[in-house]
Amino acid sequence: MNLPSPIQSVTFENKQFFIKRDDLIHPDFSGNKARKFYYFLKNDLSGIEKVISYGSSQSNAMYSLSVLAKMKGWKFEYYVDHIAEYLRENSHGNYKAALENDMQMIVGRGVPTPTIETIYIEEGGRQKEAEFGIKILAQEIIDWQEENGIGQLNVFLPSGTGTTALFLQKSLITHHSSLITRVYTTACVGDTTYLKKQFLELEANEKYHPQILTLDKKHHFGKLYKENYKIWLKLHQQTGVEFDLLYDPLGWRVLMAHPEVHSKPTLYIHQGGLLGNESMLPRYKRKYPFP
User: Fold this and answer.
1) What's the CA gap between 208 and 222, in Å, rounded?
2) Are residues 167 and 269 in the same domain?
3) Mean pLDDT per segment of 10 residues, for the chain of length 291 residues?
4) Which one of 3, 37, 275, 280 has the minimum C-beta count within 10 Å?
5) What are 5-16's pLDDT values in tens digits?
6) pLDDT tens digit string along 170-199?
7) Which residue among the candidates 59, 64, 171, 279 is catalytic per the annotation?
8) Do 176 and 106 sit in the same domain of this protein?
9) Annotated catalytic, 64?
10) How far is residue 282's CA from residue 291's CA, in Å, rounded to a whole number?
11) Does residue 243 sit in helix, strand or coil?
């Protein structure tokens, strides 16, 4: 495991940003999912034989859990409502890679009641154990700030369940550092109301909640937006860094729309999930065939 993950200085749209390269933690186990599931990787969970979870058939969490199960020698059962016929016949991306890691996918059945030999993971890794790995991320950021004399830092990352952003802000506050480190995020799945609800389910004290930023227009998760593809291409051209196509483009669009945030030193946390680009990029190229 490549920890602490490197931090890279880049220039984007004539502004300096720092990127926390969590996509480089491990070739197969990276990004925010590696942070969320780190507890299960590092702790001795003797007696556990199986991990169970549920979600969509191209989920980043699904693939990361398949890697975790393989590393730990566990069976992995993953429950989905349906699989698209095209994906079933032309397996690729996270789905294909998870199957290659011996995932057993179960379609159209309810998740069974976990036993003492089973670990049950909420969709997207939204659970208390995620705090373990995210505390380590917070410590890496604080150490880097101290080494580089950055007294005030804004941290930005896009949110699905909001688990990483929440526990990161909480960890940074409870560290009691003299540094000022504020976490900003945006809702990629659902809206601000949904994201606030997710925060409250994990942490009732709102002083630990990150600040949610938005765009003027409503964003539908998984829909192909020309603006998302354009900023993804620009980021690759100007920084040389490949980002994921599901979360990061909206994240960067929101960040760039808020100069009151990025006018101060700003650290963007790479979400990993690049395997998902195998399915997303061809869809974007078909819909928006500009160079």
Assistant:
1) 29
2) yes
3) 96 98 95 96 95 94 96 97 91 94 94 90 92 98 97 97 97 92 96 96 96 93 94 98 97 98 98 92 91 59
4) 3
5) 999 999 999 999
6) 999 999 889 999 999 999 998 999 999 999
7) 59
8) no
9) no
10) 13
11) coil
